[in-house]
Amino acid sequence: MKMSELMYGLIGFLFISAFIIGVLFGAMFLIDLMIGWGMPALISCIFVDVVLVLLIVKISDSLF
C-alpha cells in the first residue's frame, strides 16, 4: 500500500467521522429542543447526550 493511498484513506475517515459527529450533535440538539427548555430538562438532556456519545464510541470501537 502506497503512502498516498494511506493518506486518502485517513482523509476519508476524518471526513466521514466529522460528518457522523455533526449529524450526532444535530440530533442531540433536536432531542434537547423537543424535551424542553427547563433546568431539569437540560440536566436530563446532558445525561441523554452522554449516553448517546458512549453508545457511539462503543459501536465504533467494535467496528474498527
What does this protein look like?
The chain crosses the membrane at residues 7-31, 37-57. Keywords: Membrane, Transmembrane, Transmembrane helix. The protein has 64 residues and is mainly alpha-helical. The protein has a domain at 22-64. The protein is 91% helix and 0% strand. The two termini are 19 Å apart. The mean pLDDT is 73.
Topology of helices and strands:
Elements: H1 3-35, H2 39-63
Question: What would you say about this model in short?
Answer:
The chain has 64 residues and is an all-alpha fold. Helix content is 91%, strand content 0%.
What are the salient characteristics of this protein?
64 residues, 2 helices, elongated, mainly alpha
End-to-end separation? 19 Å
Compressed to H and E, one letter per element, the order equals HH
Could you tell me the mean pLDDT?
73
User: Helicity, in percent?
Assistant: over 70%
- Rg calc: 16 Å
In DSSP terms (H or I, runs of 4 or more residues), the helix count works out at 2
Shape: elongated
Based on secondary structure, the structural category is: mainly alpha
The low-pLDDT segments are none
Largest sheet: none
Strand elements, count: 0
Instruction: Give the strand content.
Output: under 5%
